[in-house]
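Reading group handout, session on sequence-to-structure problems. Before we discuss, look at one worked example. The prompt was deliberately terse, the way you'd type it at a terminal:

> structure OadG family protein

The input record follows.
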Amino acid sequence: MKNLKRILLTLCMVTCFFALTACSAAEERELKTDENIAAQLCEATEMTLQQITAIGAEDIEEQIALAEDQREYAFSSVLTTWNNLMGDTGNLVEILDSSAVRDEDGYVCVVNAQFEKRPVEFTLYYDDQTGEISSMSLVAVYTMAENMERAAMNTLMGMGTVFIVLIFISFLISCFKFINVFEKKVKSSPAPAAAPAPAPAPAAPAAEEDLTDDLELVAVITAAIAASEGTSTDGLVVRSIKRAGTSKWKRA
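And the output record:
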């Protein structure tokens, strides 16, 4: 919170200073840099850079949210950039140089600083028409070897992704022939033969009726046999009586 207040106070001082000189500057048609304004702007910009880079990783998210709540969008943007760069740059070591020039939109101040791992360029844009700081940028300076390495990695990842997609598409296309083979097999395969109808089960034979218990029938049959043989019924014993399947009377 204290860091944010100090930075905002510095920016307000710069804004007030340029607001006092905006009237006289607006009357001049030529884009002429005022050395006094440029010197004070460089000093304020260097102070702003020191205060921004003094914010550690544990407080940066809170400071970004606070700046957005106060609608300090230029400040929240540069804090977000610092949050992404602090791992690549390390801590601030020293301010190398600074310069400010005037263009059509106002003043542009550039501060070159040396950090632990690499140089960083901090730029502040001031709009002398509105008397406000329009934007700020923080750019890490990478060596040629680092830029070539990053470019090679990006190219390699892009080409690798393209080749992987092409290989996958080729694999899908190669699978189409199996689809055609499968369709031909389905069309050429004969229809399954109908299952044969089950043979009718043979009729169960009728249970033979035991007629030996029918005494009247036994007596009649015994008498008939004795009469046909011309003998007495005393010597005849009927042990079983079976009903014939067909009858001679029916065939007659």
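Points for discussion. First: The chain has two domains: 2-145, 210-243. Second: Strands lie at 92-102, 106-115, 119-127, 132-140.
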